[in-house]
Every structure is written in structure tokens, then in C-alpha cells.
Amino acid sequence: MSEIIKARLRITCPDKPGIVAAVTNFLHSHGVNITDLDQHSTDAMGGVFFMRLEFYSENMAVIRPALESAFESVLGGPFEMDWQIDYTDRPRSVAILVSRFEHCLLELLWRWTRGELPCTISAVISNHADLKEAVERFGVPFHHVPVTAETKAEAETRILEVAGDPDLVVLARYMQVLSPEFVDRFPGRIINIHHSFLPAFAGADPYRQAQERGVKIIGATAHYVTAELDAGPIIEQDTARVTHRNSVEDFKDIGRDLERQVLARAVRWHLEDRIIAHNGRTMVFR
Amino acid sequence: MSEIIKARLRITCPDKPGIVAAVTNFLHSHGVNITDLDQHSTDAMGGVFFMRLEFYSENMAVIRPALESAFESVLGGPFEMDWQIDYTDRPRSVAILVSRFEHCLLELLWRWTRGELPCTISAVISNHADLKEAVERFGVPFHHVPVTAETKAEAETRILEVAGDPDLVVLARYMQVLSPEFVDRFPGRIINIHHSFLPAFAGADPYRQAQERGVKIIGATAHYVTAELDAGPIIEQDTARVTHRNSVEDFKDIGRDLERQVLARAVRWHLEDRIIAHNGRTMVFR
Amino acid sequence: MSEIIKARLRITCPDKPGIVAAVTNFLHSHGVNITDLDQHSTDAMGGVFFMRLEFYSENMAVIRPALESAFESVLGGPFEMDWQIDYTDRPRSVAILVSRFEHCLLELLWRWTRGELPCTISAVISNHADLKEAVERFGVPFHHVPVTAETKAEAETRILEVAGDPDLVVLARYMQVLSPEFVDRFPGRIINIHHSFLPAFAGADPYRQAQERGVKIIGATAHYVTAELDAGPIIEQDTARVTHRNSVEDFKDIGRDLERQVLARAVRWHLEDRIIAHNGRTMVFR
Amino acid sequence: MSEIIKARLRITCPDKPGIVAAVTNFLHSHGVNITDLDQHSTDAMGGVFFMRLEFYSENMAVIRPALESAFESVLGGPFEMDWQIDYTDRPRSVAILVSRFEHCLLELLWRWTRGELPCTISAVISNHADLKEAVERFGVPFHHVPVTAETKAEAETRILEVAGDPDLVVLARYMQVLSPEFVDRFPGRIINIHHSFLPAFAGADPYRQAQERGVKIIGATAHYVTAELDAGPIIEQDTARVTHRNSVEDFKDIGRDLERQVLARAVRWHLEDRIIAHNGRTMVFR
Question: Alpha carbon C148 to chain centroid distance?
Fold first, then answer.
């Protein structure tokens, strides 16, 4: 759209009076314009404080180093802040892992083509070769990395080689469980789509589990991946009605549309620096 | 509304060709008018067959005995049917059990007053005395039956005494677990509202569990009560969005509105003979 | 819950750099604690700026006058602000107008009893006598003010006499059109529930209109009342699915539940000072 | 999946006792197996009767002519039925018209590739050349037929030439108004997606209209096209929440996902013979 560089500041710190005033003053005195500000306290009178700001400046490239250094000494240190500034001229690189189901992958690639996902896509990696052509059509490199129980460690090494050092790894219906070592390399930077309304129906074949339990609503959940399977911080969920007429196949059909939407929203919010994860939960500033 | 007696026929039987023709023929030849017909097969080519029909006749009271007896010999026996006919001139009696939270109870009483729930209410029974006045205002008998760990058996005996031999028992946020013996007396005739999207967050304090897990959607579930806690056939569910801003108290506020709606729908469908439970699941013919 | 007085500040002004810093500084320097802050600009680079803050102080009653006077001279004047501070120790008084349908009225009274609506209810006024007993049960004064085409002016005079000078007038399915003079007395302070998804089906009998058009979803809309019928700023809307099976009566049943929820949310947000109306639209800071 | 030919029978006729029995008997006596049956009466005691049945036979190809001819003489004539049988071995051909926005088109093509839309796609026709490559990638013929105010009649002639005599025409965000003559050629066989919750915001630029009105929910509507713009029978609608933060561009983003889903569902239901249109409304038997 425009050449203007926007910055997004995220802060986590102990709550105390005067933080908002101090931060907005600081930014105002550096001549930047705040275009969005959102904040949250875990407890109205104490607790942890979270804030997200968007701001821009005509000469961001010039002021950036001084601003960041001053921020740490004036605010970050004194307020014991965990803080981070990201800039729109440095789009993230994303690697997508996928198995055979293409719906989530294609949704992401299509939205990326449209400009809805501000990132580069460094690689699509699959343990099957089926989607090669579909991916390359988008001008994105495809890598086939087969995995078996025996070759898992090698496969993950190979994935790291071809992934292109991504900022974010997206599991777009990747049916292999990643090793703790792999997960540890990308803390808060792996997003998975699980095809149930977590914590219900964690684990394998959730649509079959849901149909057998006779639920009247199914769901999908996008979450950050942690060492514990399907237990990481939830980013987004959505649900849809089903009836006794719906077979497991119908659940998959209906669920597919949920999965596509939910994963795409989660990835977009991550790339727009809207998420702060804390204590196993997420704040999503929209 | 009208003096016309309607009948509702529910059938469960092994699926085989010709059932629909046989049943509709039978009813047509008895001079009744079918106003609604719904059916479901677990498998398009075999499996279990379910059907619900509504029909009426100008002289239902007269033909009823002959019709039921003929039905069994002509259809029920030969097709190995599990079948049941209910008539709108015999409204069910309902006993409501409640603890301290009044929202589900008041919703049911209010809808009942409006004529939305075709039943009589034989009693409201609570282990607390708080809601006595609110209930009696509706012209419904209220019974206070305290329960402690030691007096549970006696309390259940007392509940049975004052409940007035109800067709249906509704647990409108009744915070005591009923004994297996009590549950066995009302097979498929106890409806509970659980304040979560089951099977997620079964057990105690589901809103707190949900908030701690960081879900983005909460739910409520109405289900038939079986011996296993929170595991009976689900009748209805609904969900609502929450965000990181919402406290456990907010979850309860938002959830309260879900609970009221979900329980009221489930009770209504039961009273309208729209539900067939089978193998731990329900069919709801709407 | 607590004795602490909370204040809610709402601001509308031309957007320019430094507003957030100036306001939060001002409040911080007056020793109050900001517990919530939300803001919106109509245009990222110019336009109109809106802000809502919640703050509290141990000695609010003492500092209040000085704070308000200083706010005007330091911020209100210089920034050309349209601003307003409301305090939780001054609950609004609400008058409810209703005709024959009681569902919205009872929902409001019930939530008010539970403490969900922070207000006093000065009067319930109806052009029918039917709901007198139901209202008085809540300890709220009921006034029967009949209206005919000929007596409309007198009736409105009478309504004003018995309404008790309310801060807010809620039309809870009041089926009479108020005169422009009446509406003018309460600018931005009359909330109506319309039983359709506005702007579709404005005017009379919207459920019939909806059924005849064959819509697959119906809705309800809470809005501020202006001189033009059903055209005031929308506060809240919600929708529900219907099918070809649903009669107009079913639409009314389903819609009733929407109306109750939508109106209750709108009234609550108004009473919590969450709404800023501007140019025929509302911002709702939640 | 299987070689079995399924048939779908749709009936519209004056309601009278015995129709269901007569039809199911007839089919049973011809040795076919009914796998689904749904029906609806406009009035419980009189009015118009609608029915949809699915049935199959091992030797459908053989019995088809006799069955259809007998049906007309035994049932169609005597009951004054408007009836139609469609068979799954005769998939419909669909022509898609589109302008510049590709999201609805790609959704349809993607679902078609997956087998979710039982049809052939005879042609994609656009008044712009942009989407040629994207369409041809799916192995579907693309035709560029420019339209101006002066050349509209010729353009429509050209469209008819290249469309391949389709059973169904889908307007997947085709921004030209079709002439009444064109519409008349495809009665009940043109489906349009309108990007609003009809009847709200008919006509041009509905998202802008919606944003200016300040609605809190937006929608999309799939409907059959009739001579009157945006007034044909509604097939499916869906809605999504928006807030004051959302710009017109955001409305378009959010709406795009609604449009894709709503149009895809409507087209699928049409192709599965689930829809009966009557008096400007649709019954959708799902």
C-alpha cells in the first residue's frame, strides 16, 4: 500500500501505575505517531501488565537504533519490561509443514498471494510428494522429506536444512509429532492446527472421536506448539453445528472449512505481532 | 391452541426396505393425517433405522387403543421395532432439581408460563431454601431437601417422595451428584445442564478450568444423565466467544446465557418427543 | 463488590499526535490508577479520535472537582475535546416503556435484580395494564398510560410526569411511535429493540416480512432512537438461523431470545459508559 | 465412491392425506431402496406439499424409463404433482461467470477438484482477461467476453455461445447485470452471490453501505436470479461480526470468507437436488 514503515511494540511487565503514561510520553517525545494502542492487566489492582502499540514515523529507519536503545534505558530496565519492537519492512519468513491434506496449505498460499499474510514463504516441506506441483505453482520451493519411525531424527535435521531458518513454522495438517528438540528451537514460533475444539478430542482422529461421542458442535483450534502434545497456548478456535445425520466424513468436510479459517487467522495475527503468550495462554490484541 | 390431539410416533428398528411405506400405509389406512415425518439410517445400506412421525385424527381418543394394538401386530412385531406413541393430551410431569443458581430454573418456569414447555411441573426441589419464594410465585410447589455426604440416601428418598412421580427430572444446575440407584429409576428421563462444551471440562468448576486453559470459546451442554458423570448422551450444545479480557466471572456471566438457552431447548425437544437416544448418542428430529 | 468509586472518561476530539500521552500523563499526575484504556481513530493519519478510560482513586470524592476543572483547562480546551466523566457511585435511573410483550422487560428486570445492570429503575410504563403485577413483584413502580391516536400528546406528557426524570429510556417492545418532541428530550438516551436485522425489515411486523422474503437468518437490533423511525445509531445486533420449516410464529419464538439478549447487552453497555455515538454510528468499547 | 446410481425425486403438489404412503409404496413396489426422505407442508392442515426422496437400485439404468412413466400415471397425474427425478450418473454442467474478484471462483474450482461439487464445469467466462491463467490451470476452458453498455446484447449472445449449454449458471461475483432475456433462458438455474445480508443493502457497494449504516454484523446471500435485481429466492445466508474498528476494506476481507462459503454451499445443494423453489422462497432439504 504505502512506503511508510510501521512499528509494533509489545510489552509484558509487572503492573504498576504510570506505565501507559510513561510509554506514550516516551514515544511522543521521539516524534512518532501512535496509531493503535491496546493493553490488558491480569488484575485490575496489581498483576501482570501487557501492552501493544502501533506507531510510525516518516524517518523510522533513521531513528530506530536510538529509539530502541533509549527505550531500554528509560523504560525497559526501570519497569522490568519484557519488550520487543517489530517493523513492517522486515517481513517474517515462514516454513510450512504439511502431510497429505492440502486444504490448510492452499488456504495459506492463496491468502499469501493476495497479500493477506505479510511474510515470505521460505519453503513448504512434506513427508509426501503429492503436493509438489500445487505448491510450485505458487512459486514456492517444495521439499519432500519422508519420515519413518526410524528416520525421524534425520528427517528433522533435513527439515531444518531446507526450511531456510524461518521465523515461524506452520503445521498445516502435518501428521508427524515433532521431537522436543525440534520444538525447542522455535519457542512460541510453531503454530499448529488441531481439528477439534481443544481440550476436547486431543490426539488422533478427533472427528471420529467427536462423532462417537455424539457432539452437536465441532471445532478447530490453532495453537502454539509446546513439548506436550496439543497442550500449547490456544490462539484461535471456531465451531460449527453438526447433527445426527452427519457422518464422520461430513464432520471432516465441515471441519475442513473451520480449520482453514482458524489457521489463517492465527497465522495472520502472529505475523501482525498481535499475540502475546504468557503462562500457557495468549492475549490477541485485535 | 386447539382441541385436536396430536400423536407422535417414534420407532427404532433394524433397517430394511419398505419400512417407510409400511408405516405410512398403516397410518393412512387408519384414517389419520401425517403432518410431519422424519427418519434416519445409521448406514445408507443397512444398519439401524429411526423414524419420527406426527399425525392427528378427529377422533383420536376413540381409535387410539385399536391403532396401538394393530400397530404392534402388523408392524412392531414383524419389523422388530422398538416403538412408542405419545399424545398431546397427556402432558408430561416434570420435577426440577436446583441448588442456588436460579438462572436455568427461572428460564424454564418463565417459558413454561408462556406455554413454550408442554408439561406440568410437579415440584421444584432444592438442597437450599433460597429459591422458595421465587418458585412459589409461579404457583409451583417448592421443597427444601438438604443434602450432606451422610444424608444423601435419605435425601434422595425424600426427593422421590415429594417429586410426584415425574416423567422427567431436570437438573437445572443441581450441584449434587445423584446416586446410580436414583439415576436407574429414570432411564433416559433425567436431563442435566453442564456448564462446558463437553467432553471438554467435565467435572467441577468448568469455567475456571476453561479460563486456565485459555480457550477462546466457551460452551454449555444439555445431556441425559447416566451412571457415568457428564458422559450421558448429548442433546444440545451451544458456544460463545470469550477473549483474554474475560475473567472467570465474565465466563460465568456469558455462560449463564448459554446454559439457559441450551437447557430450555433440550427440555422442550424432550417434551415434544423429538429425541431418540441410541448407543450413547441422540437423534433430535427438528 | 467494593466501595471503590470508579470513573469512566469518554473523549471525542480531532485526532492529533500526543493525545494519549497527554491524557494518561494528566491522570497519572493526579494520582489515579488507570485500569482500562481503549481508543479509536477514524483514520490512521488524521480524522476524529475517540477514547475511553477507566480509572479509580482511593479518594475520588475529594479530588473529583479539582480533577474535572483541571481536565477542562489542561486538555479539554486545548484539544477541543467533547468529554464526559461518569462515576460508579452515581448510578443512572432508567425508565422502561413496554406494551404487551413481556420478554424483554422481564429479562431486564431479572438482570437488574442480579446486579448485572448498574442502575435504578424509576418506572415501568405501559399502554396496557397487563404487566402491572409482574412488574410490581420486582418492587418497581408500574404506570398504566393508555395511548390512542387522539391522546398521544397527553399520554407523552403523562409518561414524562411518571417517568421520574430518567437518565435513560428503554423501549422494551413499546409498540407506539414516540413524537419528535419526546425523542428530542432524550438525545442519545433512548434505546429501542427492533425485531429485525436492521436496516432490513424496518417498520411493522418484521418477522412476517422476513418469513415472506424467505430469509435463512433472522436478527434483532438495539439502537438509539432518533427522529427517523428505526434509523438511529445501532448499538448491537445478533442473528439466528431459520429454515423453511419455521412459521412466522417460530420466527417470533426464536427472535424473542435474540431480542432479550441484544437489548440487555445494549442497555448494560450504555450504563457502563462503553458507547460513544458519532455521525449516526456507535463505538462500543468492550 | 461407488458405481451405484442414486436417484433424487422432488415433488410439489397440493397437500392431501396419503401422499407419503402412496409415493413410498410406489417406490417400494418397484424394488428400489429409499435412503433419504424429507417433506414439508406449508400448512399442517392443507396447503402445498413438498417432498424429496433419495433412492437407489442395483439396476437403475434398466428400470428408469418404466419407473418414470408409471410414476406419472399412478402418482403425478392423480395427485397433480410437479415432479422431477435426477440421477447421479448424469452430472450437471455448470458455467461460471466472474469479473475481477477471484475468491468465489477459486473456492468453487478448488471444491470441484476435490469432488465436493458433483458437476462438470463447461466454461468460466469473464468480462476481464485477468483470471485466464488461474482458470486454465484447473483444466477448465476460460473465455474472455468484454461487456460495455453498448455491447451488452452481443456479449450475452457470445456468452451463450461459449457457455456450452449449461444446466446451471453461477455468478461468482459477476459485476454485470444480466438482461431479462438472458435470465429467462435459465429459470431457477442461475445462482448469484450478493455480498450483503439481503434484503439489507441490495444494489451497489453493499459493504460501503453497511459500514456507513454502522451495522454490527455483515452477511452474504446466495440466491436464484430473477428479473428483479437481488430479489430472487434466497438459498443460503451467513453472517459475521464486525466492530467500529473495521474499515470498509476490513468488511470486504471478512465478507470474502462469508461469500466463498455461502456460494459454495448453495451451489452444492443445487447440484445435489436439495432445493425446491416455490413462490419466491426456497426449501432446502438437508
Answer: 27
> How many CA atoms within 13 Å lie on the side-chain side of B68?
14
- What span, in angstroms and rounded, lies between the C-alpha atoms of C179 and C193? 17
State whether residue D26 is helix, strand or coil: helix
Alpha-carbon Rg of chain A, whole angstroms? 21
Q: What is the pLDDT of residues B76-123, one digit of tens each?
A: 999 999 999 999 999 999 999 999 999 999 999 999 999 999 999 999
| Structural domains of chain C, ranges and CATH numbers in brackets | 5-87 (3.30.70.260), 92-284 (3.40.50.170)
The residue whose grid cell reads 405501559 is C126
Burial call D232-268: b when 16+ CB within 10 Å, e when fewer:
bbbbbbbbeebebebeeeebbbbbbbbbbbbbbbbbb
pLDDT value at residue A4: 83
Task: Please give the share of chain B, as a percent, with pLDDT higher than 70.
Answer: 98
Residue in the structure block whose three cell numbers are 462444551: B197
Q: Is residue B252 scored above 60 in pLDDT?
A: yes
Active-site position among C230, C238, C250, C273:
C230
Maximal CA-CA distance, chain B: 63
CB contact under 8 A, C24 and A20: yes
Interval A158-197: pLDDT, tens:
999 999 999 999 999 999 999 999 999 999 999 999 999 9
The residues pairing with D9 across neighbouring beta strands, listed in sequence order, are D53, D85
Nearest Cα to Cα of residue A270 among A243, A239, A234: A234
pTM: 0.96
Contact residues, chain C to chain A, C-beta under 8 Å: 17-18, 20-21, 24-25, 27-28, 33-35, 37-39, 41, 44-45
- Contacting residues for D205 by C-beta, under 8 A, at least 6 apart: none
Cell of C57: 482513586
The answer to whether residue C230 is catalytic is yes
Instruction: Determine whether D202 is exposed, middle or buried from the number of CB atoms within 10 Å of its CB (0-12, 13-18, 19+).
Output: middle
Tell if the CB–CB gap between A257 and D261 is shorter than 8 Å. yes
Strand ranges (E), chain C: 6-14, 33-43, 46-56, 82-87, 92-98, 119-126, 142-144, 168-171, 190-194, 217-224, 234-241, 275-278, 281-284
* Separation of alpha carbons A255 and A196, rounded Å: 8
The SS3 assignment for B244 reads: coil
Interatomic CA distance for residues A71 and A69, integer angstroms: 5
Q: What is the pLDDT of residues C66-110, one digit of tens each?
A: 999 999 999 999 999 999 999 999 999 999 999 999 999 999 999
Length of chain D: 286
Instruction: Point out the least confidently predicted range of B35-49, B106-120, B165-179, D77-91.
Output: B35-49
Which residues make Cβ contacts (< 8 Å) with residue B77, sequence separation at least 6? none
Judge whether C235 and C191 are in contact, CB under 8 Å. yes
At CA D93, angle to CA D92 and CA D97, rounded to 5?
130
Using N-to-C axis directions, what is the helix angle for B248-271 and B103-114, rounded to 10°?
40
8 A C-beta contact, residue A278 and residue A48? yes
Q: For residue D278, list its beta bridge partners.
A: D281
Beta bridge pairs of residue B103: none
CA distance A271 to A274: 8
Residue in B197, B214, B281 nearest the CB of A244: B281
| pLDDT score of B2 more than 80 | no
* Spatial CA neighbour of C55 closest among C85, C12, C19: C85
In this prediction, residue A1 carries a pLDDT of 41
Other C-beta atoms lying within 10 Å of the C-beta of residue A272: 18
**Using a CB-CB distance cutoff of 8 angstroms, which residues of chain A are in contact with residue C27?**
21
Reduced to 3 states (helix: H, G, I; strand: E, B; else coil), residue B179 is coil
